[in-house]
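#struct-pred
JK: can someone run the complex with nicotinamide-adenine-dinucleotide? inputs below
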Amino acid sequence: MINVGLLGAGRIAGVHASAISSHPSSSLVAVSDINHKAAQSLASSYGCEVRDSEQIIADQSIHAVLIATSTNTHSELMEQATAAGKAVLCEKPVDLDLQRARECQSRIQKTGQPVMIGFNRRFDPNFAALQNALSKGEIGKAELLSITSFDPAPPPTEYIKVSGGLFKDMMIHDFDMANFIMGEVPITLIAVASSMVNPEIEKVGDVDTAVVTMQYLNGSMAVIKNSRRAAYGYDQRLEILGSDGLLQAQNVLENTIVKSTQNGVLSAKPSYFFLERYMLAYRAEWATFMDAIIQKKDIPVGMDDGVTALAMAEAAKLSFALGEPVELSKI
Ligand SMILES: NC(=O)c1ccc[n+]([C@@H]2O[C@H](COP(=O)([O-])OP(=O)(O)OC[C@H]3O[C@@H](n4cnc5c(N)ncnc54)[C@H](O)[C@@H]3O)[C@@H](O)[C@H]2O)c1
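RT: done, structure tokens with the ligand placed:
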């Protein structure tokens, strides 16, 4: 049995607590949060202890930690946990600051501990199937990837202030998805963005609507479209045009009912948000992490992927600020 400590007891920690507890090889032993009430509430739901993060990391009987705290704490906690001999699954992004993330990458590499970064969408069965079909050559050579990623509604501005902003907090998932699907990193990107959904978002220095276009060495392209608002729910789709055809991953709907009448054809809305849409993915992510620890399998999405996606987010921020394309190698 792998004993697990959960650092953080906020929105995403609840999802992870459920995945850890329901896996046959892991046991949730303790949870920490600087907000003691949040930790208490999560711990009582899962019958585990509340402890400080430092106590969890120092406990020799805990084999792995899942870091689901606010982004500005990730590097520090990853360094402490790996230095203490623990396997780590850390939420995205690795850090708010790229240089700090690179420093963390080099420190944790020296410990030799397995570290996985929480790009859960790679474990979504639909996206994984699309990637698998493409990698088997079913539509020939990849030429143009389109990623649509719209949230149903923006988070509170208090969250936006500490999140790192749209490129590092939200689009980072799509940068990683592009890397996963295309199997390589683009050479250049250009970003356009604005704040159209909520004026408060602009006041705290962020954008809520953005498009990034990327180009790869062989000329192929990818486009990422993000919005913090879609009136009809959480819109998560992929489309890739290849030399021999097209692959699409459509939205997962709330139900499969389709009503057809003389007025038209009506289906359900997309699953509301990430907790609903990606529940299977979070569980598969945890199961993959467990396999990596128990069966010593390779970590499929590690620190290098986390740092690469963060560099792409940094490049997008810079491109938006300059109003011109940015080469990834310069970041
Ligand atoms: N992979 C995904 O789909 C996904 C979804 C949501 C959030 N996230 C990421 O997960 C992280 C948390 O996001 P959230 O939405 O759960 O935020 P949240 O604000 O709901 O939760 C974060 C929690 O961390 C606690 N915390 C802060 N510093 C701490 C410390 N030093 N020690 C212990 N606890 C500490 C806060 O008190 C808070 O309860 C962020 O990095 C975010 O980017 C990932």
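RT: quick notes.
The radius of gyration is 20 Å.
The domain at 122-281+308-330 is CATH 3.30.360.10 (Dihydrodipicolinate Reductase; domain 2).
JK: thanks, will look after standup
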